[in-house]
Here is the input.
Amino acid sequence: MSAGPAPSIRRHRDRRISLAALVAAGAAVCLAAGTGAGLATAERPPSAASWHPGCGDDCPSVATAPTPHGPPTRVRVPRIGVDSPLTVLGLDRAGVLIPPTGFDTAGWYGGGPAPGDTGPAVLAGHLDSRRGPAVFARLGELRPGDLVQVWRGGQRLSFRVTGSLRTRKDQFPTAVVYGPTPGAELRLVTCGGDFDRRRGHYVDNVVVFAVAEAGDPVLPTSAAG
Amino acid sequence: MHTLRTAPRRLLAGSGVLLLTAALAAAFPVPATAAPGADTVGYVRLAHLSPDTPAVDVYLAAPGAAKPQVFPGVGYGVVSDYLELAPGRYAVAMREAGAPASDPPVLTTEVAVTSGDAFTVAGVGRHADLGLRVLTDDLSAPTDGRAKVRVVQASVRTPVLDVAAADGPMIADGVQFATTTDYQQVEPGSWRLKLTGAGGPSADAEVRLTGGAVYSLLVLDARQGGLTAELRRDAEGGTVVPAGGVDTGAGGTAGAGFDAYPMVAGGLAAAAGAVALLLWRRRRRTTW
Here is the structure.
């Protein structure tokens, strides 16, 4: 081992260079992983373990309200500061849902169930305009148990968030979002993910799921008599 | 000596490769995989479908819950509404009506609730061979604006049953007592259903089926004798479902993220190349 001082100096210098390279590499890895990690967490929110249907033993009995009629007129989501009138949304020639024209107004898909009726009622709102945040900008912050209120026919209908998903629009889970449900449910839809500037649209949709707030389950009487 | 000479080079080469890999990864971000479904709720309902079994108390225990939910005095022919439950394994127990909760249950079963799926937990069969069965309810949308209906056969008086619409399609053929058919697609509208079976009473049922809805036709022994049927709406959805997602954003809050990545990645790649070149030239000039 007749190395002398020279190799050790060189080695020291080399290590510094490699250390710098490693730091740069690490930063690059973080940047690259940032996209993946962000997606992974956004797709699977915490499970609805804290949320439970109905209420405990000593909950107030819910008076049976008359069946609401007509289109929904307003949506309010206290946790994310949403309080918006509702327009009625339709489909374009290709059968795709047309988003609301206004960035500050959410819309209800009028071809599907209305909020409060059995089935999944779908409300859509913009994430942002070209200038800044729009009506559903903070939809992704909703968590199981959060309250959503919809006004319809002079009644205020309450829903509880049960979960959410983020999906590529070209792989939209139509059956999960629009499929039949046993009770009155709500879907709140906006955009998410990366913005594709060539197309002028976001790549993903964010969908929040909610179910009508129910009282204690009541057993129907037997049809056998 | 050899190890001393090669180690730094390996380290440098390794870090260079790492840098390039990272740059490439940044240039081609991992695509978002399609979410299989939201982590929301599943649906469970309870049913008593055993004609000669007295009323029971049904206990439904959530995973990790201290106290079960109790449905007292559930009699023959009762089918509850669906309960919306967080996914997990739930325990169902049946006791004779009025029996203390500390008594050992007559029957128990478990239902694994999964997000978006529906189940009917039913006490089926004659009292002598009563069992708890977990039926999977397929609530998926019928196609082309039709309705979906199935038969839940809980009559011992007509133990083998045919169900057909008058001037319409056959809905079920030779359904045995204590069994359930698959869902059949039927045109929406009003139908008169004929319930018949060899050696047992017959019955008619007027039903109105809505397009996009899913139904179960519950066939029971009526208390006053004969056969009776009840149409239960299991689920409902729209008939015209939008294609794909919805464009709800103009990009004002998108930031530089998506567009900046190629630039960032390119910069990193260039830096990696420069470092590699520099090191290569240095190595050539000096003796190791």
Notes: Chain A touches chain B through 110 residues (CB under 8 Å). Chain A has a mean pLDDT of 78.
